[in-house]
Amino acid sequence: MLDLGSDPDSDCFTTFFNTLSNNKDNKIQRRFTNQQIKSLETIFQSESKLEPRKKLQLAKDLGLQPRQVAIWFQNKRARWKSKQLERDYNILRANYDSLSSKFDILNRENQSLTLQLQKLHEVIDKKEKICSTRENSKDSTEEKVSEKGLGNVSDADSSMKLEYPEHNSSMLVVDILDKANEDNWEDLESDQLLNEAAIGDTSNQWWDVWC
DNA sequence: AGAAGTCCCCATTTTACGTCA
DNA sequence: TGTGACGTAAAATGGGGACTT
């Protein structure tokens, strides 16, 4: 290997070296000059495939064999394709990461909502049992009063009225459901609903006024 | 229809050259 | 400072498919 100690990127060096190689081995030059590369790159930017006539003209202009020009364009297309593949991969990877992140957020939200729903079902069941017990006990008392001749009580009066007292700090579950039934229910944030339902305030729960 | 020529793509090899111990 | 091993990019090769004549 010749080491001339000069800038290997300079045209002078390359030309000189190629000349040496040509004279020594009587072969065509192996490395193209910077000027040749520049011309080839410029044309490649506008057309990645060369027409035969243009190829011959370009080879003549650059002092190369037409076959060399054709090979250069083939290799250049391969290199460009490889780079493009890398760019596409990076774009797809970024999109995937973004979607994956969103999926994780939605998944966690879904788990949280499922848990909250389960708790609500448990509370409803519990309260319904309590209501049922109280109603039975009230009915038996009224039967006793009626037997003592205090008058008949109409069904309407005896039926339990579901009255909601004013409750500023919490939203009733029916309100939540009404809200969810609106057209824009998708806009409701789960956190908002949970906050409005005052799940965390055990001293003043909406289900305390259920009966 | 099929043989010959040409071009291109693709995988692979060869070569040039920089870096580092 | 010289040198050989190694890695990498570029140039070249060869096989095979598609197309034209």
From TrEMBL:
GO terms for biological process? positive regulation of DNA-templated transcription; response to abscisic acid; response to water deprivation
Residue ranges annotated as coiled coil are 75-123
Coarse class of the primary localization is nucleus
| Chain positions covered by the region annotation Disordered | 132-158
Q: Does the keyword Nucleus apply?
A: yes
Gene3D superfamilies, sorted: Homeodomain-like
**Which residues fall under the DNA-binding region feature?**
25-84
Q: Which UniProt keywords apply?
A: Coiled coil, DNA-binding, Homeobox, Nucleus, Transcription, Transcription regulation
- Provide the GO MF annotations for this entry: DNA-binding transcription factor activity, RNA polymerase II-specific; transcription cis-regulatory region binding
Q: Where is the composition biased (Basic and acidic residues)?
A: 132-147
Superkingdom: Eukaryota
- Xref: Pfam families: HALZ, Homeodomain
- Report the residue ranges that make up the Homeobox domain in this protein: 23-83
What are the annotated GO cellular component locations?
Answer: nucleus
> Where does this one sit in the cell?
Nucleus
What this chain does, per the record?
Answer: Probable transcription activator that may act as growth regulators in response to water deficit.
Per the record, the similarity remark reads: Belongs to the HD-ZIP homeobox family. Class I subfamily.
Query: What is this protein identified as?
Result: Homeobox-leucine zipper protein
Q: What is the originating organism of this protein?
A: Artemisia annua (Sweet wormwood)
